[in-house]
Amino acid sequence: MSLAARDITIGYDKKTISEHLSLEIPAGRFTAIIGPNACGKSTLLRALSRLIKPVTGEVLLDGKDIHGRPAKEVARRLGLLPQSSIAPDGISVAELVARGRFPHQKLIRQWSAADEAAVVGAMAATGVTELSGELVDTLSGGQRQRVWVAMVLAQQTPIVLLDEPTTFLDIAHQIELLELCVRLNRDQDTTMVAVLHDLNQAARYADHLVVMKSGEIVAQGDPREVMTADLVERVFGLGCRIIDDPETHTPMVIPRSSLG
Amino acid sequence: MTPDRTERVDFGRRVLVLRGPGVSARISLKPLLVTVVLMLLALAVGVLALGTGEFTLSPAQVIEALAGEGTRAARLVVVEWRLPRVLLALMIGAALGLSGAIFQALTRNPLGSPDIIGFNTGAYTGVLVATVFVGNGYYLLAGGALAGGLATAVVVYLLAFKRGVQGFRLIIVGIAIGAMLASANQWFIIRMNVQAAYSAALWEQGSLNGLGWAQVTPAAVILAVLAGVLLAYGPRLALLEMGEDAAAALGVRVERVRLVYLIVGVALIAVATATAGPISFVALAAPQLAQRLTRTPGIALVPSAAMGAFLLMLSDWLAQRAFAPTQLPVGVVTVSVGGVYFVWLLVRQARR
């Protein structure tokens, strides 16, 4: 499977965010898209996940234009955790996770053994099996996010995109979620793409970084090579030192202090 | 299909899983039970209504007549005179319940109902325009109702559109447009000749009086087609309730699917309006009452339809019985009972 953007121009209404952008998502790896606020990283993710249609150029899924394919077929290849989703009132965890099976279902095949196995597996992988019968409204923010991830996993797609999955989570749940992504990437060979805010988390958990500024991709590659003090200064306007993360030996950004 | 008892997922409610080669279904028991009970209740009231009137019959006599037995007079009264009205009450009630469920789900708001946001007022305007400028006849009126309802929906959507449609904005705009259309309707009625104005004013109350088999067949055919579309679209309405992005990510073509639901929802209310006039509050109340009884996640279509059928059947029976021999238009009953519910709903919404 492959996902790529070819020379795309994207934006909202009449406002262009990115022009003539090209990007290849490396298969079977965990890609993090980083950059300052309003650099177009979420817009790029929305274009990759066919939520917005490029003005020019095309997004290719397995070499074919993503907008020219049946919507359900695309949803069997590519899963997405959007930034904002609404859990209907009174829905239980298992019911929400089961909705991830929609692209695999037909009018006369609403709940096959394969659907059930996928839901059981997704809930186990995200550790929400014990919450299965609980109402989603009653869960904590961290639990709820894991339930949404479980729904995306139940979709059983070879590619999973996550739009700022760690926002609104406390630090422990952030780490837990990112490690879950890494595990899925390793164990099931799922291609992961996440928009992340925290540079250290991106460098630690992703094995491919895409760095954006003002709608353009300014650098991409292995975090150990990409994440330099010079790049952080250039992209974020932040003076820093890069040290070795003692836990994972990945680059770690230590901002310089101006307080003297 | 046979029940599969090797249940491994706890859904937090009792579900029935049916599986056979290539076919499978998962049905929550409570909504199923509530739907069946509501349908039985609606049928029971229907039997009572069939026995009600100048020629009174016991339920047993009614059932006899329906089965083709009993006296000829009883069969004539029950099957030829009263049955069409009961069937229409059930069908139109179900249509109103479905239409309310669709719009409440699309707007994610219990107030986002076609009778509140002016769609049935607009459908009625369409009917009046057709009567004044073209003529009479069921299909003409149904066409007028559909055109009026759709035009209202388009205007409301365009005016409410601001970076996507927000539920609450749509409701406020809809109420305003509905109020304007209501005055337009009055103007049309004043301009008509006395005879037409009288029947139009009666009709505006929403009434099943004097409906016969001639109205049953077209309404049944159109409603069956619309129900078929809803069936084919399956769980897409529920997925839309999770937000546009989430639905699109699961393979729902959001724009197209929303347009289809909009048209089907307007068509349902248009058929109801063309047949019986603008009946208020059933579309508003049925989906919410059904949801309280079934505890389904979000608004469910089938229990809403069953609840709508039951509510309108009951209201029509009350309309016939309350001040007998004077027959009230059913719309008067739904407005009186529904009005109380509407006030309660507004108070509850305002407190949020």
UniProtKB/TrEMBL annotation, chain A:
Looking up CDD domains in the UniProt record yields:
ABC_Iron-Siderophores_B12_Hemin (cd03214)
Q: Membrane topology type, per the record? A: Peripheral membrane protein
Keywords noted in UniProt: ATP-binding, Cell membrane, Ion transport, Iron, Iron transport, Membrane, Nucleotide-binding, Transport
Q: Which Gene3D superfamilies match?
A: P-loop containing nucleotide triphosphate hydrolases
Which GO MF term does the entry hold, naming one? ATP hydrolysis activity
Keyword Cell inner membrane in annotation: no
Q: Which domain of life is it from?
A: Bacteria
Tell me the ranges covered by the ABC transporter domain, including all copies.
Answer: 3-239
The record, for InterPro entries, names: AAA+_ATPase, ABC_transporter-like_ATP-bd, ABC_transporter-like_CS, P-loop_NTPase, Siderophore_ABC-ATPase
One Gene Ontology cellular component annotation? plasma membrane
Tell me the compartments it is located in.
Cell membrane
Main localization (coarse): membrane
TM spans (from-to): none
Q: What GO biological process terms are annotated to this protein in UniProt?
A: iron ion transport
Name of this chain's protein: ABC transporter
Originating species: Winogradskya consettensis
What are the leading ranks of the lineage? Answer: Bacteria, Bacillati, Actinomycetota, Actinomycetes, Micromonosporales
From TrEMBL, chain B:
Q: What is this protein called?
A: Iron-enterobactin transporter permease
Q: Known CDD domains for this protein?
A: TM_ABC_iron-siderophores_like
Recorded hits in Pfam families, A to Z, give: FecCD
Q: Which family does it belong to?
A: Belongs to the binding-protein-dependent transport system permease family. FecCD subfamily.
Q: May I ask which residue range the UniProt record assigns to the signal sequence?
A: none
The protein's UniProt keywords, in alphabetical order, are: Cell membrane, Membrane, Transmembrane, Transmembrane helix, Transport
- Bilayer disposition of the protein: Multi-pass membrane protein
Q: Where in the cell is it found?
A: Cell membrane
Q: Which residues cross the membrane?
A: 32-51, 86-105, 117-134, 140-161, 168-190, 210-233, 259-286, 298-318, 330-347
Species assigned in the record: Winogradskya humida
Q: Quick one: where is this thing mainly located?
A: membrane
InterPro entries associated with the record: ABC_BtuC-like, ABC_transptr_permease_BtuC
Keyword set includes Ribonucleoprotein? no
